[in-house]
Amino acid sequence: MSVAGRLLLLLMSLGWARPAACTDPASGGWLLGTVPEEQRCTVERADASLTYPLFLQRFAFSRPVILQGFTDNSAFRALCTREKLLAAFGSSPVRLSTANTYSYRKVDVPFTEYVEQLLEPQDPGRLGSDTLYFFGDNNLTEWGPLFQQYVPPPFRLPGTSLAYSFGIAGSGSGVPFHWHGPGFSEVIFGRKRWFLYPPEKTPHFHPNETTLAWLHHTYPTLPPAERPLECTLRPGEVLYFPDHWWHATLNLDTSVFISTFLGCSAVVPCVLLHPHRHRSGLSPRGQALVPRPGSPWLSAMNHPSFGFSTFIAEVILFSYIYFLSCHFQRCSEARQPPEHLEARSSAGLVVILLFVKGFQ
Ligand SMILES: O=C(O)CCC(=O)C(=O)O
User: Fold this and answer.
1) Residue 221 is part of a domain; what is its CATH number?
2) What is the pLDDT of residues 249-260, one digit of tens each?
């Protein structure tokens, strides 16, 4: 072996030089990546002095922001090391999905199999449609106790409630451009590069291409004015993405990450307050990513055919409830038994709920 080779081996054994792919304790036992980091960050950053009114005024409905120092997830991070997750969830199944925009294949595998056999750096020659990605579709019965340890970002949007999507993915992997409702994303381990475009600026991308391929082939051809907003997130930073913003991700290392989606828990405030809600639901990839909790309202809002008709359905529902409450009042004034009205109100509600559910 040459002198230089011996020197390199010596340095590596002393921990002074890092091989191309390795782990260190700070990475939670997850493999570090070799995808080069881009220092440019064109997304605004805000520290913990950002107040909720300012967040609403400056970012909530208009542009992304990276929040720093708002929450401390070190306890959650300690539970997300490779060793701890394998010990706690090794035999639990995880649902993987293809990392492309339009086709959406799902594959269930035990978590151990995913971590030990499938979680590998992205093959640059592979299509998104042939790449499996673990993000979302989490079984809340099994993973719920872990998610309870996560401290979500402190800000909400009026009329929304939280739903988590958790994932782990190899370096060079990511999701291609898509959009959906607003939310936050936090990296627990690893680094993740984000690319974002406002709703009215549809990006140039091929639906079956991985983000890595897009970065190599399309990104360099973009004139400066056509470039996305972008930034690389590190553990402890939280990105807020507003409603309907296009976004794509690229994991620079094996990353553990969690998104907090702000789904509509009441349709009327959502329609009135969120500027893009009148445009129908989600991009196909968005539909697949956003968790669909049981609420028919939330499901309807997150459905691609959601739009003006759902809004009308809710207006009818609210009018109906209002009408009934007036009617009950008159009944009690007139001392009439309200049973028949109760039956009618329940039937009416069921019909309206079925109507809204019919969109799903
Ligand atoms: O973190 C990722 O790779 C995907 C996140 C994402 O697309 C989302 O939160 O909507």
Assistant:
1) 2.60.120.650
2) 999 999 999 999
Domain count of the fold of the chain? 2
Backbone angles phi and psi of 247, in degrees to 5: -155, 150
Give residue 330 CA to ligand 1 midpoint distance, Å.
52
Ligand 1 test: best mutation among 66, 119, 162, 185, most atoms within 8 Å of CB? 185
Asked whether residue 287 is assigned to any structural domain, the reply reads no
Which among 274, 330, 325, 336 has a CA at the least distance from the CA of 302?
Answer: 274
Cα separation, 173 vs 348, in Å, equals 48
Please check whether residues 145 and 239 belong to one and the same domain.
Answer: yes
Q: How far is the CA of 282 from the centre of ligand 1 (A)?
A: 14
Q: Whose C-alpha lies nearest to ligand 1, atom 9?
A: 259
Q: What spacing in Å lies between the alpha carbon of 66 and ligand 1's midpoint? A: 15
Say how many Å lie between the CA of residue 286 and the centre of ligand 1. 9
Q: What is the pTM (predicted TM-score) of this model? A: 0.75
Chain-centroid distance of CA 340 in Å reads 45
Question: CB under 8 Å to 245, separation ≥6 — which residues?
Answer: 64, 179, 196, 197, 198, 199
Which amino acid is residue 170, in one-letter code?
G
Rounded to whole angstroms, how far apart are CA atoms 231 and 251? 12
254: which residues sit within 8 A by CB, 6+ positions away? 27, 30, 31, 32, 33, 119, 168, 169, 170, 171, 189, 190
Tokens 């391929």 -> residue: 213
User: What is the model's pLDDT at position 342?
Assistant: 55
User: Does residue 203 form part of some domain?
Assistant: yes
